[in-house]
């Protein structure tokens, strides 16, 4: 039995793996630099995402690695707890994902409001764009999201007065322009991924014209890997670190499983097994934590490139991890030629793609409550931080759902003679109780009243008690008591 018979899709998977490798390479490096960690750690996470998570069951075609969506959270964690503690945080988050997968909680992530997830990505996109505009100009960005945005006018003034900053900004702007225009190039040219082409052109231009721009700092693969030591594990004594661990686990899981749902719509192969995919992500993050690398998550850009390139099995994503490993081991010095503003340009473009402008418009036309949740979640992430912003979005989603679930209709029929008839239908809860009581208390005191509750699907205790108390109080002394018709 030859290889073609045993592996009928090997040729297509091999070709797809090269495409995914070329897409992943600049993104792995760019996400690492934007996260404030050595560039090689982004490659380590890409390697683990390909080889470790890629070999595990769950989703056959989605590709994992470092994601722009976690950049803000990683940057904040490194700033607060230090780079040495990143491995402990990622390790603990991976173990938490494994536990959630073992408890079969993966499917429940699908119940999270799409508006909250879209708002989370939009907020992250805004912070990424604001922060990387500083990086594109070679300037130091403020720590918080709101300070990044508020400080942009001053940063522009400083950049205009500096030749080096303008040269750096020019390289970043050119990188974004290449990526935007790449889709209009001939199909043969577009065989090279836009992000890779933009980085290559920026690197060649900076070398050819000796531009005064900062380059990626290279440590070498083994030099960058620093497994967490005893001091790093000692950080677990700080209660604040557990909030970061939970944020890593929940946000990485949600992004991965939403990506899986999107990838399933792109192909007609095996569907994602969500609990197994959650465990695959957990295993990958556990290994990343042991290596002191960035957290990993499934990434829709790499996953869609994998599907579009014709991949049929998980072999393509495993091979892409092998190519990343070979590149990191054999050609690490190439990273030192890449201009930092080019990577900033890639992240600005990636941040822009995270903002769902069209979705906001469509939601506003049909579901304004969902649009409001999306916008508030995004703004909360910018104003506070990602974890608390997501919690605010989830809280709004719960409140909105509770409000909708408590929808109740009160119809009053007064024929001028005989009893006044009041019909309640829907779900009577304490949320709508004030409005119900206002209407009932406005009914005439000198007329008999019939209160029909047979149309109610649900009556909570507070509402039932309040209605019974109203019925006892209503009416003059010589008026017939309120008659209540129950379901």
Automatic annotation (TrEMBL):
> What are the UniProt keywords, alphabetically?
Membrane, Transmembrane, Transmembrane helix
Q: Show where the SLC26A/SulP transporter domain sits.
A: 10-377
Q: GO CC terms for this protein?
A: membrane
Q: Membrane-spanning regions, if any? A: 14-34, 41-61, 81-99, 111-135, 155-182, 194-214, 240-263, 322-352, 372-399
Subcellular localization(s) per the UniProt record: Membrane
Membrane topology field:
Multi-pass membrane protein
Q: Which domain of life does this protein belong to?
A: Bacteria
Q: Tell me the Gene Ontology biological-process terms attached to this UniProt entry.
A: transmembrane transport
Q: Which PANTHER family match?
A: SULFATE TRANSPORTER (PTHR11814)
Report the protein name in the record.
Sulfate transporter
**The species this protein was found in:** Streptomyces subrutilus
């Amino acid at each position: 039995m030859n290889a073609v018979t045993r592996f009928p899709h090997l040729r297509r998977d091999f070709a797809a793996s090269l495409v995914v490798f070329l897409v992943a390479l600049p993104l792995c490096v760019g996400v690492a630099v934007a996260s404030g960690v050595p560039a090689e750690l982004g490659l380590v996470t890409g390697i683990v995402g390909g080889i470790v998570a890629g070999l595990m069951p769950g989703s056959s075609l989605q590709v994992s690695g470092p994601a722009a969506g976690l950049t803000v959270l990683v940057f904040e964690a490194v700033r607060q707890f230090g780079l040495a503690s990143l491995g402990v945080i990622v390790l603990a988050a991976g173990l938490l994902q494994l536990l959630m997968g073992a408890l079969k909680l993966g499917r429940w992530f699908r119940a999270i409001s799409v508006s909250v997830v879209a708002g989370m990505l939009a907020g992250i996109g805004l912070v990424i764009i604001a922060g990387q505009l500083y990086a594109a100009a070679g300037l130091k960005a403020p720590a918080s999201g709101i300070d990044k945005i508020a400080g942009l006018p001053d940063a522009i003034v400083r950049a205009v007065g500096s030749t080096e900053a303008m040269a750096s900004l020019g390289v970043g702007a050119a990188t974004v322009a290449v990526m935007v225009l790449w889709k209009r190039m001939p199909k043969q040219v577009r065989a090279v991924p836009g992000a890779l082409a933009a980085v290559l052109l920026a690197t060649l231009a900076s070398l050819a014209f000796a531009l005064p721009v900062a380059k990626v700092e290279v440590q070498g693969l083994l030099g960058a890997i620093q497994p967490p030591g005893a001091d790093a594990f000692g950080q677990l004594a700080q209660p604040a670190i557990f909030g970061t661990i939970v944020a890593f686990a929940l946000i990485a899981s949600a992004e991965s499983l939403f990506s899986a749902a999107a990838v399933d719509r792109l192909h007609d192969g095996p569907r994602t097994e969500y609990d197994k995919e959650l465990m695959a992500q957990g295993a990958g993050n556990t290994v990343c934590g042991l290596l002191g690398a960035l957290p990993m998550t499934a990434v829709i850009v790499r996953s869609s490139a994998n599907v579009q390139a014709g991949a049929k099995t998980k072999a393509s994503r495993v091979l892409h991890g092998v190519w990343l490993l070979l590149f990191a081991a054999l050609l690490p010095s190439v990273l030192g030629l890449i201009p930092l503003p080019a990577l900033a340009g890639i992240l600005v473009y990636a941040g822009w793609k995270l903002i769902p402008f069209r979705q906001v418009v469509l939601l506003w036309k049909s579901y304004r409550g969902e649009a409001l949740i999306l916008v508030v979640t995004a703004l909360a992430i910018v104003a506070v931080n990602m974890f608390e912003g997501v919690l605010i979005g989830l809280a709004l989603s719960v409140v909105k759902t509770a409000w909708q679930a408590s929808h109740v209709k009160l119809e009053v029929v007064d024929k001028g003679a005989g009893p006044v008839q009041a019909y309640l239908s829907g779900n009577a809860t304490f949320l709508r109780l004030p409005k119900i009581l206002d209407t009932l208390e406005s009914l005439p005191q000198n007329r008999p009243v019939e209160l029909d509750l047979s149309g109610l699907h649900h009556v909570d205790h507070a509402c039932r008690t309040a209605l019974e108390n109203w019925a006892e109080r209503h009416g003059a002394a010589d008026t017939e008591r309120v008659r209540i018709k129950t379901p």
